[in-house]
Amino acid sequence: MAGGAREVLTLQLGHFAGFVGAHWWNQQDAALGRATDAKESPGELCPDVLYRTGRTLHGQDTYTPRLILMDLKGSLSSLKEEGGLYRDKQLDAAIAWQGKLTTHKEELCPKNPYLQDFLSAEGVLSSDGVWRVKSIPNGKGSPPLTTATTPKPLIPTEASIRVWSDFLRVHLHPRSICMIQKYNHDGEAGRLEAFGQGESVLKEPKYQEELEDRLHFYVEECDYLQGFQILCDLHDGFSGVGAKAAELLQDEYSGRGIITWGLLPGPYHRGEAQRNIYRLLNTAFGLVHLAAHSSLVCPLSLGGSLGLRPEPPVNFPYLHYDATLPFHCSAILATALDTVTVPYRLCSSPVSMVHLADMLSFCGKKVVTAGATIPFPLAPGQSLPDSLMQFGGATPWTPLSACGEPSGTRCFAQSVVLRGIDRACHTSQLTPGTPPPSSLHACTTGEEVLAQYLQQQQPRVMSSSHLLLTPYRVAPPYPHLFSSCSPQGMVLDGSPKGAAVESIPVFGALCSSSSLHQTLEALARDLTKLDLRRWASFMDAGVEHDDVAELLQELQSLAQCYHAGDSLVD
C-alpha cells in the first residue's frame, strides 16, 4: 500500500445499500479517471483509502474496491458472484472428479445494454476466456489500449435499472460479493423481512465464517487500517445483519472506527400496513443495536419521517427527482455520503474515523444527522461570501436523516464539507476602497470564510470544516436530476443551454442535533401503540417481548441524550 494511506474497509449490506454503493463506487471510479487531468486539483482525496491493488493469475494489475457486500439470491442480475475481473475458464474447468458428470445450466440474465457498452470500453474477453483490462486509472496497471474513435457512452434509462448491478461501472474482487442463498430478492415468499431473521443469518456458522474469512483477507493486507464503514439497509432484515456485523467488528477489531450509514428508501404509504410496521420495528431495533456497536451511526433517507406517519420526501431547489425510484434516491444519498466522508479520506491532514466519531458523539450521542445542499447555489460572477449570505440565518442544507426540518433545533457538534468551488471564487473580489458588505467579504481565504460563517450560524457549537476544490462528478450513469445548472453545476437563470451537467459543488454536514430527541421519542411512542400480538410473524423471527420492552427503554435513554439542554456549552 503506497503512501501510508489510512485504509477503510467498506461493508454493503442489503439491496438499497447496493444502489447507494453502486453510485458511490462509480463516483470513486470517475474521480480516478480524472486524476491525471491537468485541469483537476491533484491529491485532495486519497483513493488508496478505499481501494486495494492486486494482480490476477495472468499478471494483470488490478485496482478494486476494498469491499464486502451481502445481498439475497436473485439480486445480481447478470453480474457474477465472483465478479468479472479475475475470471478464468481454465480454472473453472479444473474438476477433480473423473466420473460421469451431468451439467445443469441456468439460463443467464440478459446484460443491461448500458453495461455491454461499458465493458466493451473497459476491456475484452479473449478466446482463452481471460478478461484483458485496457487500463487501470490513476497510473495503476498497464498502459491503456487506444482506439481510433471513442464511442459516446450509453446513458442508462430509469426503465432499464432493475437492480444495482445494472449500473455499476466498477469491477469487483472475487472476495467482495457474498450471497445469502436462503432468502430471495424477488417474490413474496422467502424474504428477509425482519430484524431477527437478519441477526440469525450471521449466527449461522456458514455465513459467519464466510464473513470472517473475507474480513481477514482484506484486513491482513492493510498497513494502517483506520476502520470500517457499513452501508446497511435499516427498513428490512438487513438491519439485523448490520447489527450483528457491527458487533463482530467491535469484538474482533477493538480500537478501530466503525461508522454505520443506515439507509432507508422512500417513500412509503399508509396502505401497506405490514410493510410499514416491519419498517418501524426494523429501523428502531437497527438504530439501537448499531449505536451500541458502532463508533457513529447516521440514518440516511429522503423521507420526512422515521415513524409510522408518512411525510413528503425532502425538496431540493435545483434538483428534480422521483422519490419512488431507488436509482434516483440512492444517487442523491451517495452524493451526500461522498461529501461528508471527505475528512477521513483526505491525502493531507486527514481526520481519522475514530477522531471524527469522538468529536460528534460525546455524552453518548452516537447517532448523528446528515444534511446537504445539492448543488451548492453559486451563480456566475458570485463569490463564496455572496452565496453564503443569501442563506441568511436559515440552515443551508436539506435534511437527509428523516428527522424533520432542522429549524428551531440545537446543534451540539458538526463536521462540514464544502467542495467544488473554484479558488477564484473563495473570497470577495471587491474594488479597492469598497467597504465589505459583511464580515465574510473581508476574509482573505476560503477556509476563513467557511469557518467564520459557521461561527456566525452556530456561535457556541464545536465545528470542524473542510473546503475542497474537487467537485462531485455527475456524468452517466448518474441520473439527469439537475435543472438550471451549467456543466460545472453553477446556478443559471432560466433553462440551461448546451452541454449536460458534468460536476457540481456540494455543501454537506454531519450534525449531533436536538432534532434526534423528538425523532427517537416519536419512534418509541409509535412502538408503544403497537399490538405485538398482531405481528407474531415478526416476533417469531427471533425477537422476544422482553426485547421490545428493552428496546423502548434504550430508545428513550438515547433520546434523552439529545435534550436541548445537554451540550458542551450553555
Automatic annotation (TrEMBL):
> Which family does the UniProt entry place this protein in?
Belongs to the misato family.
Q: Where is the Misato Segment II tubulin-like domain?
A: 6-118
Looking up Gene3D superfamilies in the UniProt record yields: Tubulin/FtsZ, GTPase domain (3.40.50.1440)
General function of this protein: Involved in the regulation of mitochondrial distribution and morphology. Required for mitochondrial fusion and mitochondrial network formation.
Q: Where in the cell is it found?
A: Cytoplasm; Mitochondrion
What region holds the DML1/Misato tubulin domain? 157-346
Its chief place of residence is cytoplasm
GO cellular-component terms in the record?
A: cytoplasm; mitochondrion
One Pfam family cited in the UniProt record for this chain: Tubulin_3
Descriptive protein name: Protein misato homolog 1
Q: Name one GO biological process term.
A: mitochondrion organization
Q: Which UniProt keywords apply?
A: Cytoplasm, Mitochondrion
Write down the superkingdom of origin: Eukaryota
